[in-house]
């Protein structure tokens, strides 16, 4: 089985995979109790209290959760969204807002630079009508880590409702929901908790979510109604849920705890990234972004030469047990290597040895 060195889906443990071998009914009380346990554990992972935050599980990929949040959090009238974008996933939120007919403005930063408070403040000064703000934490276009810890509390203090796409960071990078004072944080089952694809997760401030009845532009992606069903029917999903995925995710949560929690996982991912970063530089590959803003999640590298054949490189690694990602940076040719999932420093070392062999052979043909 190849290792997925991608930002999710990612390589999962054999025990997480094995959990999906049993069929389950959605009305079973044990299943509803497990759903409630998962929801509680997610709030706890965010260093928050069940009295203040709720975990809303939403069928579909992470993008379903982001769209559900935008479509529910923002009223149909007298509201303007500001989106901070420095990559493809910030831009995707702008595309969602367009489809949902939500008035919005965008504050841009270059893809290789983080969003800053100065940029946001400057845009806010020009647009006092802004009521909601959305940004990506780990922008996996490049692997950059945006400073939500300085931006989100400052906007919350201004009374602006805040939305964080923490798709690729939650569970792998320590996040304190209550300290951030964030209203909505979105992630999914197949990222740093190391489950499999199937549902998204919205950690919502209860007091904020309570004001959103009737906002949703979609029956299925109604975050308010989804949460009400979980709360009023003791863990029942509104529509057919991905039962096998939920059981796998519960197992992944247990394994995260055994590993030592988010702090321990962050250390493992960071060790992987540091080893990869230094090893690739030694082999002549230049990172796309500065290491001071690099997340431990995924690392982007520029093509080493103008005629570099990524497809050949990709197939070479795939044939030898590693699957990487093509680049998403619009201004340059690049590729990405993920550091998350059931991946160790030994795995990264094996990858680097393969890349060294490939690179040496490539140079010999020049």
Total number of beta strands: 14
Task: Specify the overall morphology.
Answer: globular
Note the main sheet.
7 strands, mixed
Helix content: 40-55%
Low-confidence runs: none
What structural class do you assign from the helix and strand content? alpha/beta
Question: Helical segment tally?
Answer: 13
Task: Report Rg.
Answer: 21 Å
- Biggest sheet, strands in spatial order? 2-10-9-8-5-3-4
What average pLDDT do the residues reach? Answer: 96
Please specify the SSE layout and strand pairing.
Elements (H helix, E strand, L loop, with lengths): L2 E2 L9 H6 L9 H17 L7 E7 L2 H12 L7 E5 L2 H13 L3 E5 L8 H10 L5 E5 L1 E2 L4 E2 L2 H10 L3 E5 L11 H4 L3 E5 L10 E7 H4 L13 H10 L10 H17 L1 H22 L15 E5 L7 H10 L2 E2 L1 E2 L7 E5 L6 H20 L2
Parallel strand pairs: 1-12, 3-4, 3-5, 5-8, 8-9
Antiparallel strand pairs: 2-10, 6-7, 9-10, 11-14, 13-14
């Amino acid at each position: 089985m190849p290792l997925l060195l991608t930002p999710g889906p990612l390589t999962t443990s054999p025990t997480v995979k094995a959990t999906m071998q049993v069929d389950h009914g959605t009305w079973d009380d044990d299943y509803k109790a497990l759903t409630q346990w998962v929801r509680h554990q997610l709030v706890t992972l965010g260093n928050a209290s069940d009295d203040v935050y709720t975990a809303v599980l939403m069928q579909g990929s992470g993008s379903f959760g982001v769209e559900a949040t935008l479509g529910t959090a923002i009223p149909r009238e007298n509201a303007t969204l500001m989106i901070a974008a420095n990559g493809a996933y910030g831009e995707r939120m702008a595309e969602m807002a367009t489809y949902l007919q939500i008035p919005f403005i965008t504050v841009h930063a270059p893809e290789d630079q983080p969003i800053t408070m100065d940029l946001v403040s400057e845009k806010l000064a020009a647009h006092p009508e802004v009521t909601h703000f959305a940004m990506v934490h780990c922008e996996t276009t490049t692997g950059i880590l945006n400073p939500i810890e300085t931006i989100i509390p400052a906007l919350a203090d201004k009374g602006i409702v805040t939305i964080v796409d923490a798709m690729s960071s939650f569970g792998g990078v320590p996040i304190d929901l209550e300290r951030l004072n964030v209203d909505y944080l979105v992630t999914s089952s197949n990222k740093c908790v190391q489950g499999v694809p199937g549902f998204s997760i919205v950690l919502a401030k209860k007091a904020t979510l309570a004001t959103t009845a009737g906002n949703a532009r979609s029956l299925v992606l109604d975050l308010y109604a989804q949460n009400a069903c979980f709360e009023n029917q003791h863990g029942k999903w509104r529509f057919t849920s991905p039962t096998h995925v939920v059981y796998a995710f519960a197992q992944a949560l247990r394994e995260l705890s055994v590993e030592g929690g988010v702090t321990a996982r962050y250390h493992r991912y960071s060790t992987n990234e540091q080893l990869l970063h230094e090893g690739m530089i030694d082999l002549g590959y230049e990172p796309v972004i500065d290491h001071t803003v690099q997340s431990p999640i995924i690392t982007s590298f520029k093509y080493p030469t103008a005629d570099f054949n990524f497809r050949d490189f990709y197939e070479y690694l795939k044939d030898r047990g590693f699957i990487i990602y093509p680049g998403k940076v619009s201004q340059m040719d690049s590729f990405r290597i993920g550091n998350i999932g059931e991946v160790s420093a030994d795995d990264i070392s094996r990858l680097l040895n393969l890349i060294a062999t490939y690179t040496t052979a490539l140079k010999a043909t020049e």
